[in-house]
């Protein structure tokens, strides 16, 4: 019974790890969405300034391009963090499933042992009944 209790604790730990990985994935998706919005805003600002006033745009262009480049870098970094979180989630789910499979295998093995014992008892009873006739 100790092994079953240990597997139960391990299963709970794996569920907690999956929940944490899901939470982290949600955070990374939110950060990526914010970075994408920042990049879109910077890109739109470049186009809007160009259309508004060509002379003022030339003076602003350096800052606008720098902001767009920073936003693009932030988006790339956020996407990389999201990919890492996604890999961690997949790993946590695989570990959780491995524990579930082990528990199922142990339960099936226990079921087979119980059925063999029951069959042995039936066979013994049948032999005793045949011997007493």
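Q: What amino acid sequence fits the structure above?
A:
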């Amino acid at each position: 019974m100790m092994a079953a209790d240990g597997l139960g604790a391990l299963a709970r730990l794996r569920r907690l790890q999956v929940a944490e990985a899901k939470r982290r994935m949600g955070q990374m998706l939110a950060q990526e969405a914010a970075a994408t919005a920042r990049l879109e805003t910077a890109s739109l600002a470049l186009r809007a300034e160009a259309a508004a006033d060509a002379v003022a745009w030339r003076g602003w262009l350096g800052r606008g391009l720098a902001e767009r480049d920073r936003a693009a870098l932030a988006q790339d970094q956020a996407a990389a963090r999201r990919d890492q979180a996604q890999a961690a989630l997949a790993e946590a789910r695989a570990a959780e499933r491995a524990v579930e499979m082990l528990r199922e295998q142990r339960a099936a093995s226990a079921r087979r042992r119980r059925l063999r014992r029951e069959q042995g008892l039936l066979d013994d009873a049948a032999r005793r009944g045949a011997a007493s006739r």
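Q: And what stands out in the fold?
A: The radius of gyration is 31 Å.
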